[in-house]
Design brief:
Keywords: Acyltransferase, Fatty acid metabolism, Lipid metabolism, Membrane, Transferase, Transmembrane, Transmembrane helix. InterPro entries: Carn_acyl_trans, CAT-like_dom_sf, Cho/carn_acyl_trans, Cho/carn_acyl_trans_2, CPT_N. It is a multi-pass membrane protein. By secondary structure, this protein is of the alpha+beta class. It has 2 domains: about 270 residues, 2-Layer Sandwich (Chloramphenicol Acetyltransferase), CATH 3.30.559.10; about 260 residues, Chloramphenicol Acetyltransferase. The chain is about 45% helix and about 10% strand. The protein is built from 24 helices and 18 strands. The protein has an 8-stranded mixed sheet, with helices on both faces. Strands 12-18-17-15-13-14 form a 6-stranded mixed sheet. A two-stranded antiparallel ribbon has the order 1-2.
C-alpha cells in the first residue's frame, strides 16, 4: 500500500516526551499545487462567464463607451439628455455628496450612465443577433440567386466578428417553433402516400382529419404553452421518453460506435495507443472547459464531471482507477502509457463475479436497477461503482486484435464493427457516456451512449482525438509515446468488489440476454471507392440526396417495395436542439426508382433530389413532422386521452434507418500528404427487427464508407446483400446522370448538409 503512504501529508505519534510530528513536504507540495490548479480553473470559468455574459460585445467595450461619454461631456455637451444630472441628484440624496466633490459626483454619474448605456447596447445587439439567427430562408435559396433579404442577413457576420466562446451563442439562439397541426398533418400524409394503397391512404386521411377536428387543437394549446415556458419543447421529453425510460438493453438498440483509421494504425503498442488516446481526449475536455472550441451555432449540453482527474480502466476482467493528473498537471502521454502497461502486466486474477460485471449494463434495465439499489448502494461496491461513474470516461484494454487485417479484410471489418457495437457484452460499460476501446494490436474505437449527446458531438470529439494522436502527439520510432516518466508515480488503484451469488446469477441472466441480442446482429462495413462527393457535385447534385435516393433504389431492389425511411437531421439552429426526422421516402424518390427500373428517369431524379433537400431543410428549420407528433402524443398521455391516429403513427416501424456521420474538422487531416489517414466513421444497430440500419461517411472527394446492420433472425434481410445493392444503386444512378451530361451542366447546386446519428 505504498500509494496510501504517499497520500498522507503528515504523521504524528504520542510519546512520553510529547508529540512527534512528521511532515511530508512532498505531499504538502502536491496539495498546494492541486489547490493552485483548482483556483486557476475557477478564475478561468469566472472570466468565461463575464465574456459570455456581454457577448456579442466585449468587456473592454465598456471602456470605449465610458471614454466616449466623458469626452463628449468635456466638450460641454450632454449625450445623456439630462440623465447624468438626474443620476447625480440621486447620488446626492444618498449622501455621497459628503465624500465626493462636485467634479467627482459628475464623474461617477457619467460612469453609471456609461454602464447603463453599455448594457442597453448589449441587449440591443443580442436582440438583433437573435433575429438574425431566426432567419432560415437562406437555406432554401438556389445557388447564385440570393435575395436582398439574405444579403442583409449577412450582417450576422458583423455582429459575430469577435471570436466567440463555445457557449457564446446560447442565449441568442431562437426557440424551436411549434408547427401548426394542419401543416404537420399535411406533411405527414404526403410522406406516407407512396407507401399506402388508395384505400389505406383514405383511411389514414380520415384518421388525420378526425384528429385535427377533435383532439389535435386541444393538445396543441398545451404544447404551445410548454414552448412559451421551456427552452425547447421537444428535447427534454425526447431525452426522457426515448432514451432514459426505455427498459430494454441499450447495447445495440441505442448505443453507437466510432472506428479508427481505415488503413493505418499509428502504433502496434497497445499501452502507447492508450496513452496518446487518453491524453488527446483530456486535451479536448480541457478545451471544452475553457470554451476554446469554435461553436457550431449551438453545442449539445455536455454533462460530465468537469473536475474528474481519473479514468476507469477494464483489463482482463479487472477494474482500475487510473489517475491522469498529479500535482495539478496532466500526466504526459508517456506516463499514461507507463501506467497502462502496469495494468496490462498485473498478474492478479479477477475477483468472484468481477470479470463479467459489465453485463449488467448490457442487459435489461429493470434487473440492473434493482441489483444496483440492493447491492451497490453502500459499502465497497458503492465506492467502486462511484469511481466508474465519476470517471472522466471508461477505457477497455481489449485482448483481441481488430481492424482491416489479414487475408479477409471484408470479414475483419465486419467483426471490427460488431466488436465496437457490443464486444463480449461484458467488457464495455454501456452506461458510461462513452467507452474507449484499445485493442491488442493498437487499433482503437469507441462505444457511445446516446442520451447525453448525438453523433455530431461525439464525432467532433473523436475526430480531434484521432488527429491529435497521429499528427500532434505522435510516437517514437519503436512505437512508444513521446516524453518522460516520473518514476515516483503511484500505480493505478485496483477496484474491490463483494459480489454475492444472487448478483452473479443476475450477471449471468443479463449476459444471456445481451449475447442473444449481439449474436443476432449482422454487421457489414465496406468502403465505396468508385467515386465520392467530388464527382457527384460536378453533376450539381447534393451528395446526401444522391446517397439517400440510392438507398431507396437499393431497398426497392432488395425487398421489392418501399418503406418508411428515417434520416436524422439536426435542429441545432435552435436552442437545445437535437434531431428531427427527414422522411426520405417521398413521392418523387419513388417515382424516380420506378422510372429507373423502367428506363427513363433523369428529370425525375432532379425532382427527387430537390424534394429531398427541401425535406431536409424543413426538418432543420423546425418544420419537421415526427418530433411534433411525438410531443402531441406525450401531451395526450398526460391528459389521459387516446388518439387512434397518434397511436398508429407512433407505432409505424422504420424499416430503413439512415444517418450520415458528419466530418466537421477536415482541417485536422492532411489527406493530400497522408491519404491513408481516412476515417471509417461509425454505425449503429438495426432499429426494426425486419429492417436495416445504414450509416455512411463521405470522406474526401473520392470515397464513401458504409455501415449496414440488420438481424440474422429475419429471413428477409441480409446486410452483405443490401451492401451490394447500395453499391450497384450508386453506380447505376451515376451512369444515368453522367450519360451525355457535360461537367458544366446547368442547374442549381444543392448545398451539402451535415448529418448525425
Amino acid at each position: 500500500m505504498a500509494e496510501a503512504h504517499q497520500a498522507v501529508a503528515f504523521q504524528f505519534t504520542i510519546t512520553p516526551e510529547g508529540i512527534d510530528l512528521q511532515l511530508s513536504y512532498q505531499a504538502l507540495n502536491q496539495i498546494y499545487l492541486s489547490g493552485v490548479r483548482s483556483w486557476k480553473k475557477r478564475v478561468s470559468r469566472m472570466r468565461n462567464r463575464v465574456i459570455k455574459g456581454v457577448y456579442p460585445a466585449s468587456p473592454s467595450s465598456w471602456l470605449f463607451v465610458a471614454i466616449g461619454i466623458l469626452a463628449t461631456m468635456y466638450m460641454q455637451s450632454d449625450p445623456s439628455m439630462g440623465l447624468i444630472a438626474k443620476i447625480q441628484q440621486a447620488l446626492d440624496s444618498d449622501g455621497l455628496h459628503v465624500s465626493l466633490s462636485t467634479q467627482g459626483q459628475t464623474m461617477v454619474s457619467a460612469l453609471v450612465f456609461s454602464t447603463l448605456l453599455w448594457l442597453s447596447l448589449i441587449l440591443a445587439l443580442r436582440f438583433c443577433l437573435k433575429l438574425l439567427l431566426s432567419y432560415h430562408q437562406w437555406m432554401f435559396e438556389q445557388h447564385g440567386r440570393v435575395s436582398n433579404t439574405t444579403k442583409v442577413w449577412t450582417l450576422l457576420r458583423l455582429l459575430s466578428g469577435r471570436k466567440p466562446l463555445l457557449y457564446s451563442y446560447q442565449t441568442s439562439l431562437p426557440h424551436l417553433p411549434v408547427p401548426a397541426v394542419r401543416d404537420t398533418l399535411t406533411r405527414y400524409l404526403e410522406s406516407v402516400r407512396p407507401l399506402l394503397t388508395d384505400l389505406e391512404y383514405k383511411r389514414m386521411t380520415d384518421l388525420a382529419n378526425e384528429f385535427e377536428s377533435s383532439l389535435g387543437n386541444r393538445l396543441q394549446r398545451y404544447l404551445k404553452l410548454k414552448a412559451l415556458w421551456a427552452t425547447n419543447y421537444v428535447s427534454d421529453w425526447w431525452e426522457e421518453y426515448i432514451y432514459l425510460r426505455g427498459r430494454g438493453p441499450i447495447m445495440v438498440n441505442s448505443n453507437y460506435y466510432g472506428m479508427d483509421f481505415l488503413y493505418v494504425t499509428p502504433t502496434s503498442v497497445q499501452a502507447a495507443r492508450a496513452g496518446n488516446t487518453i491524453t488527446a481526449l483530456l486535451l479536448y475536455r480541457r478545451m471544452v472547459n475553457r470554451e476554446e472550441l469554435t461553436p457550431s451555432r449551438v453545442p449539445d449540453v455536455l454533462q460530465h464531471w468537469q473536475d474528474s482527474e481519473f479514468v476507469a480502466v477494464y483489463s482482463r476482467g479487472r477494474y482500475y482507477r487510473l489517475w491522469v493528473y498529479r500535482a495539478g498537471r496532466l500526466l504526459s502521454a508517456r506516463e499514461i502509457e507507463h501506467q497502462i502497461q502496469w495494468i496490462l502486466d498485473d498478474p492478479s486474477p479477477p475477483l468472484p463475479g468481477e470479470e463479467k460485471l459489465g453485463a449488467l449494463t448490457a442487459g435489461d434495465r429493470v434487473p440492473w436497477a434493482q441489483i444496483r439499489k440492493e447491492h451497490f448502494s453502500s459499502g465497497v461496491n458503492k465506492r467502486s461503482l462511484d469511481i466508474i461513474e465519476k470517471a472522466a470516461f471508461f477505457v477497455t484494454l481489449d485482448d483481441e486484435a481488430q481492424g482491416m487485417k489479414g487475408d479477409d479484410p471484408t470479414g475483419n471489418l465486419d467483426r471490427y464493427a460488431k466488436s465496437l457495437l457490443h464486444g463480449k457484452c461484458y467488457d464495455r460499460w454501456f452506461d458510461k457516456s462513452f467507452s474507449i476501446v484499445i485493442y491488442k494490436n493498437g487499433k482503437s474505437g469507441l462505444n457511445a451512449e446516446h442520451s447525453w449527446a448525438d453523433a455530431p458531438t461525439v464525432a467532433h470529439l473523436w475526430e480531434y482525438t484521432l488527429a491529435t494522436d497521429a499528427f500532434q502527439l505522435g510516437y517514437t520510432e519503436d512505437g512508444h509515446c513521446k516524453g518522460e516518466v516520473e518514476r515516483s508515480l503511484p500505480p493505478p488503484h485496483r477496484l474491490s468488489w463483494e459480489i454475492p451469488s444472487e448478483v452473479q446469477d443476475q450477471i449471468f441472466s443479463s449476459l444471456t440476454v445481451a449475447k442473444a441480442l449481439a449474436d443476432d446482429v449482422d454487421c457489414h462495413v465496406f468502403p465505396f471507392r468508385d467515386f465520392g462527393k467530388g464527382k457527384i457535385k460536378k453533376l450539381r447534385v447534393s451528395p446526401d440526396a444522391f446517397i439517400q435516393i440510392s438507398l431507396q433504389l437499393a431497398y426497392f431492389r432488395d425487398r421489392g417495395s418501399f418503406c418508411l425511411t428515417y434520416e436524422a437531421s439536426m435542429t441545432r439552429l435552435f436552442r437545445e436542439g437535437r434531431t428531427e426526422t427527414v422522411r426520405s421516402c417521398s413521392n418523387q424518390s419513388c417515382a424516380f426508382v420506378k422510372a429507373l427500373e423502367g428506363g427513363e428517369c433523369k428529370r425525375l431524379f432532379r425532382q427527387a433530389s430537390e424534394k429531398h433537400q427541401n425535406l431536409y431543410r424543413m426538418a432543420m428549420t423546425g418544420a419537421g413532422i415526427d418530433r411534433h407528433l411525438f410531443c402531441l402524443y406525450v401531451v395526450s398521455k398526460y391528459l389521459g386521452v387516446d388518439s387512434p391516429f397518434l397511436k398508429e403513427v407512433l407505432s409505424e416501424p422504420w424499416c430503413l434507418s439512415t444517418s450520415q456521420t458528419p466530418v466537421q474538422q477536415m482541417e485536422l487531416f492532411d489527406l493530400k500528404n497522408h491519404p491513408d489517414f481516412v476515417s471509417l466513421g461509425g454505425g449503429f444497430g438495426p432499429v426494426a427487427d425486419d429492417g436495416y440500419g445504414v450509416s455512411y461517411i463521405i470522406v474526401g472527394e473520392d470515397m464513401i464508407n458504409f455501415h449496414v446492420s440488420s438481424k440474422h433472425s429475419c429471413g428477409e434481410t441480409d446486410s452483405h446483400r443490401f451492401g451490394a445493392q447500395i453499391a450497384k444503386a450508386l453506380q447505376d444512378i451515376m451512369a444515368v446522370l453522367s450519360a451525355d451530361t457535360p461537367s458544366s451542366s446547368k442547374g442549381p447546386a444543392q448545398p451539402q448538409s451535415k448529418k448525425l446519428l
